[in-house]
Sequence to fold (876 residues):
Amino acid sequence: MLKTHYVKDLSAELDNEHVKLAGWVHEIRAVGKICFVLLRDSTGIAQLIALKQDTPEELFKLIGGLAIESAITVDGIVKKSEQSKKGYEVQIKDILVLARAETLPITVTEKGITIGLEKRLDYRSIDLRKPRNSAIFRIQSAIVEGFVNNLNNKGFLQVFTPALLGSTSEGGAEVFRFKYFEKDAFLRQDPQLHRQLAILGGIEKLYDLGPSWRAEASHTTRHLCEHRTMAPEMAFLEDEMDTIRLEEDLIVSALKNVQHKCEAELEVLNIKLNIPEAPFPELRFPKIYDIVEEEGGKLEYGADPDAEAMKILWEHVQKKYKSDFYFFNRFPSAIKPFYVMKVDDDPEWARSVDLNFRGLELSSGGQREHRHDKLMEQVKEKGMNPKHIAWFTEFFRYGAPPHGGFAIGIERITKELLNLENVREAAIFPRAPERLEP
Amino acid sequence: MLKTHYVKDLSAELDNEHVKLAGWVHEIRAVGKICFVLLRDSTGIAQLIALKQDTPEELFKLIGGLAIESAITVDGIVKKSEQSKKGYEVQIKDILVLARAETLPITVTEKGITIGLEKRLDYRSIDLRKPRNSAIFRIQSAIVEGFVNNLNNKGFLQVFTPALLGSTSEGGAEVFRFKYFEKDAFLRQDPQLHRQLAILGGIEKLYDLGPSWRAEASHTTRHLCEHRTMAPEMAFLEDEMDTIRLEEDLIVSALKNVQHKCEAELEVLNIKLNIPEAPFPELRFPKIYDIVEEEGGKLEYGADPDAEAMKILWEHVQKKYKSDFYFFNRFPSAIKPFYVMKVDDDPEWARSVDLNFRGLELSSGGQREHRHDKLMEQVKEKGMNPKHIAWFTEFFRYGAPPHGGFAIGIERITKELLNLENVREAAIFPRAPERLEP
Fold:
């Protein structure tokens, strides 16, 4: 490799050590006979310094003429420095320009004019270099790593369920369809049904980490046409509370991993992370309707909470539990898909769970109906054609165990935790109705 | 959860302990006044036993009448047993049938008539219950875990590059296309170009773990229409040898993880795993042409090795290095895509690397061309329209660092390591030209 150290590995303790760095020219300042170069790599920014008197003329000229965002390697010596914010700087001994950058169409530093998100996304490969964006994706990766390590340690298998489907489970709206040889195929909107089929296949604990798609011509700050979910599913649970216990444990693990690995990144984004404590508060329907009313709001009995009710419920949770994360459970069966399990002795309500964060839904899940006769009843109740879903339901004849799970939106949790304005900022190359590039 | 122990946790050391198990009825045998039940869960098979004299009549009747593949829970007591192969069996105290299975369309035990792969795939959720298939996906998950842990420990970020593309880089053949609102979109055949754009975005070390698709009406045992790759990419490498060093380290990690976690599964599949030693042998073009000739084969100068040459080269490696894994490097530039880096002082050959295993290609990769002028030359050489690929190449104007990587096919490495006949066996729900279900 062309480097011996990453910026984050540098410190005053390396005083007088020779290091080889590589990265991009973030900024240059020439102050009389001193030249300062800010070198940025994926882990941070280091201040490099060249004194005219100590530097060969040609090198000093090269340094002064460096184009912003050029890719370079640097031979240097770490020097303790009281004046420097980080306690050290790096004396430049040699610089090699690997690739000179032309004049940039957008800036990488946070300074100067503000550029709109869409233009930034047009030039995403430059935009991603911003320390702010680098921080977002380092944190996103740490969230995912936290999830994955937790699940692997619990014996969950990572499986890869198909993205291409031969039929749609929930109507044809908002689904991308295409010609698959002689057939029609669809991009999945959700990996759920195949996770369930994998459970029925005897893989008791599994997760799918992958993309799903929605052909929704929506331009809100919360929608992507392509997003990813971390979606665990497990068999032989007692009831939906087992999915709740797993989910809160995952969240705690992920946040701890972020706190552990991404201190500097959280600082760049100015985010103070609170590690929540399990158990998270759980509100249940129909009690939720009473709470909304008691708090002065209005939510029709049997309805899904709207934005106003979500806000009221979040304020209620804040007052009563002081928790950012909280569950809703026992949603009305009528507004949930055919595969959810109803409460046997109170079938108006389902073992259907949402995880919320500060008034916004982060994930959906709960216990699924595993009994073939009940499942087929629910297929009919929802007005679905049993033939269209038989590829899925037929397998429930052969000893389907109780099971459940949930799907956490990777971009969504990134957006909410980091308080990003638009979920597109949480996708490295987002896909939206008008955006297929870069 | 409905269980206190998994089958793999049981042993004679738990003698007289009460356990709660859950799983599927694999087999039943009634021998006079004794009933044996083989209980299978995702981790193995345990022998349960009920003696008529010690068992309530109703329970004994229930046990005798259990339908194969029903999902059950078992309360039992572990008993040391000299006669039992595993050194213990479980005395049944109670059984609860969670879901009774109807008569199966295919068998789950390996006994009896052999059922063809396609029929097995039609009933995949039953087929997956076979200990053999369970073992395949437990090992696949351990391979992936080995890759992921190795990369995470090295500071690589997991990123999710887009599956939907606005244009195709390598012609329109073999790509699934569909209507994306008002535009045409394509399913990626490979996550490479966006990995490169992420590198240009300053994410120095990253991997994409996700699906790609090929609309290839091919019915060989080596092709899937949907497959997944583990695809790392890194910046600031010296040359393609850095990708080789990374790749062999990944392979060693993954295999060690399999050996560590999947001893029983390897036994089920009758696979003896050899952990290879790094560095793996590396053969280079054009020397490869000489080797083929010396070994009595024929391979035209400048051509890609065909099946016959692959076999000869594998035999050569076996003789000379005794290694199952080996690299080919410096492929002819003429047969490689526009983005590969040529050797500067010998541009007939490229820094293009394949990893092979026993005569079969597992992955492709190497160093990419990062210099904008050279890249554009290569676009023209390949007869591509520069406008169509400008969404990608334009970013190389702004300080693109040297970089490289590779993509290992998850299903392919699973197939080859486990000596499976057909790669479809290595996809949990495979997609082939005639198969979109289940």
Q: What stands out?
A: The first strand of chain A starts at residue 18 and ends at 31. Chain A touches chain B through 106 residues (CB under 8 Å). The CA atoms of residues 90 and 228 of chain A lie 41 Å apart. The mean pLDDT of chain A is 95.
